[in-house]
Amino acid sequence: MWRYRFLIKGSEQELKWLNKLAQHGWCLAGLRGNWYHFKHVKTTFRIFSEYVPSELVAEMTKSSHLFQVLATVQVQKPDIQVVYTGSDRPEVVAAQVSPGDPKMRLEVALGMRDKAMNTINLLIYLGVGFFGVLIFTMQTGNQLLISQIYMLIGVCVLFRFWWSAKNLQNQIVILRRDTREYDGAWLPTMHVYIEPLKDGIDTDTLKSLGRWHLVGHSRKGGYWYDLQTLATESEIKQVLRPMVPTETTVNVISWLGLAPIGWII
């Protein structure tokens, strides 16, 4: 059985999906790009994945211990391989295992996103060129109908790639916040207004949200911060609420919004 999934190789989401199929008797047997090959087995497998340097994969696949090497896939950025192993031993199936290195998963996800965006751009160029040639060569009504069908198929394929890239970007946002790796990321500036406060908040303890900049404060104890972040307004308020007094008001304005009415620096 073959299944197509656009998932971060070695991610927690991918492992959940693979193990869900394994519980129904479908064990991973191979990988080609985003196509997953499964074989039906009589026992229940527990599947794991790990990032391994390319030079160590050969030695790893030769060894036969508790785990079987089910599949390997080469990743270009970074230059590693994702090795999928599995076991049908009861003690392994029942074991609790934590996810792999989030920084490495972030690098793999960024490489997959770049590849997906390049594919989308290529499809757009090919589609525009194809329909341009088709329009100039159309002579009958049937050809017009065929071109409309081709256009609909092209839009569906493009939407599928776009939706996959969007879901991948959502996972990248989570990984960036977990690892605090924001290099190369576009961070929208959120405007955070807090009042009243005796002193400013300790932004060093809030680095997981992003980059903080104190803009100014008023005589009434109001503080204005600019926060470059990938977090939403509700997430920022949720993190700040335990750090300020109960009577303090926290307003978060998006980078497209306006300051609260009556705010005076």
Describe the structure.
- The protein folds into 3 domains: 2-100, no CATH class; 103-179, Orthogonal Bundle (Helix Hairpins), CATH 1.10.287; 189-253.
- A hairpin with a 5-residue loop joins strand 8 and strand 9.
- The strands form 3 sheets. The chain has a 4-stranded antiparallel β-sheet with strand order 8-9-7-10, with helices on one face. The protein has a 3-stranded antiparallel β-sheet with strand order 1-3-2, covered by helices on one side. A 3-stranded antiparallel β-sheet has the order 4-6-5.
- By secondary structure, it is α+β, with helices and mostly antiparallel strands.
- The protein contains 6 helices and 10 strands.
- It has helices spanning 12-23, 54-62, 90-93, 102-137, 141-179, 233-240, and strands at 2-4, 26-32, 35-40, 46-53, 68-75, 80-87, 189-195, 210-217, 223-229, 249-253.
- Helix 4 packs antiparallel against helix 5.
- The model is unreliable at 259-265 (pLDDT under 50).
Euclidean distance between termini CA atoms: 64 Å
What is the 3D shape?
Answer: flat
Largest sheet, in brief, is:
4 strands, antiparallel
Classify the secondary structure makeup into a structural class. Answer: alpha+beta
Total domain count: 3
Write down the overall mean pLDDT.
79
Q: Write down the Rg.
A: 25 Å
Low-confidence spans: 259-265
Approximately how much helix is present in the residues?
40-55%
Number of strands: 10
Strand order of the largest sheet: 8-9-7-10
Q: In DSSP terms, counting alpha (H) and pi (I) runs of 4 or more, how many helices? A: 6
- How do the SSEs run, as a string of H and E? EHEEEHEEHHHEEEHE
Beta-strand content bin: 25-35%
